[in-house]
Specification:
Elements: E1 3-6, H1 16-29, E2 34-38, H2 44-47, H3 62-66, E3 78-79, E4 85-88, H4 110-119, E5 125-129, H5 136-144, E6 147-152, H6 157-176, H7 183-193, E7 194-201, H8 207-218, E8 224-230, H9 234-240, H10 245-248, H11 253-265
Parallel strand pairs: 1-5, 1-6, 2-4, 2-5, 6-7, 7-8
Antiparallel strand pairs: 3-4
The structure holds adenosine-5'-triphosphate and magnesium ion.
Adenosine-5'-triphosphate (ATP) binds at residues 12-18, 40, 42, 44, 132, 199-200, 229, 231-232, 235-236, 239.
Domain AAA: 3-166
Protein name: AAA domain-containing protein
């Protein structure tokens, strides 16, 4: 059964796409079969990877899949130039998706059915890139995912954003939850599906200590991943060449950090 990993975190630019792409690449090097899905209308994941046969724009993308009544996964999947990695590309039409699908009320079974299809697929890991919002889609993804990576950068506002996300998750729960559910059990369900990852952290940055302590006060230390991805300009250089970091420079510290992270989330 495939494991589904998402990266819902409504603060923009924290490194969601960078982290997802590099975890996926490291998992593929560990001989795991990986499917990327780009649900961000900015299309960063779609455009930051290389495709087999120079084929760049797919005929079918995630918008088509999300608006189909009974989608068949294979129809939307494209091969990348990396061994063991395929993708369902994004679409800027996703910005208008709310008109098509209401993931929280009348269409609330769509994401569980979609995840059921992903779990039964041939992939070991399905990695879903998300946009920086608290949308119905993103709340539905957190609700159903096996693991959501909440990426926190050195900016102190990231903790405020995490608090807002938790608040909206709690608020949205009665809409789709079945039966009587207490606020404690909702927080518990959030804490078991979500892990915190520190990314883009300057060496010896003191804000981490404050952030760590706030998160420990909110939840528990076990939610924080051991691996920290430090700040390095190699992230930008690799992206300019549309390469995962460890393909760009296998011996770089950041490549080692992503390798460690992939093993930690496996
Ligand atoms: N560890 C890091 N060190 C240095 N630069 C980084 C690091 N992680 C990400 N970046 C850079 O930060 C910028 C934002 O990263 P990225 O696009 O992955 O963020 P995002 O959270 O996906 O953004 P958005 O919210 O718009 O989807 C990029 O230019 C990326 O190269
Ligand atoms: Mg992104």
């Amino acid at each position: 059964m495939s494991k589904i990993i998402t990266n819902v975190m409504p603060k923009g630019g924290v490194g969601k796409t960078t982290v997802l792409l590099n975890i996926g690449y490291e998992l593929s090097l560990l001989k795991k079969k990986v499917l990327f899905i780009d649900t961000d209308g900015q299309l960063n994941l779609t455009s930051n990877i290389q495709y087999k046969d120079d084929q760049v724009i797919a005929l079918k993308n995630i918008f088509d899949l999300f608006t189909e009544e009974d989608p068949k996964l294979d129809y939307y999947i494209y091969e990348t130039s990396y061994k063991n990695i395929d993708i369902i590309q994004g679409s800027s039409d996703l910005y208008f998706l709310r008109n098509e699908r209401n993931f929280m009320a009348e269409d609330k079974d769509f994401i569980p059915k979609f995840f059921d299809m992903l779990h039964k697929s041939d992939y070991d890991y399905v990695l879903i890139d998300t946009n920086p919002t608290i949308s119905e889609l993103n709340l539905a993804l957190i609700q159903n995912t096996d693991l959501n990576l909440i990426i926190i950068d050195g900016d102190i506002n990231a903790v405020d954003t995490l608090q807002t996300l938790l608040g909206q998750y709690i608020k949205s729960y009665p809409i789709w939850a079945k039966g009587e559910i207490t606020q404690e059990s909702v927080i518990y369900s959030f804490a078991t599906r979500n892990k915190i990852l520190f990314n883009n952290i300057a060496k010896q940055e003191s804000v981490i200590e404050y952030t760590r302590n706030t998160i420990i006060d909110m939840f528990h230390e076990s939610m924080i991943l051991d691996t920290v991805i430090h700040r390095s300009v190699v992230a930008k250089y690799a992206k300019m060449d549309r390469e995962p970091i460890s393909q760009y420079d296998k011996k770089h510290t950041m490549s080692k950090e992503f390798r460690k992270l992939a093993k930690e989330v496996i």
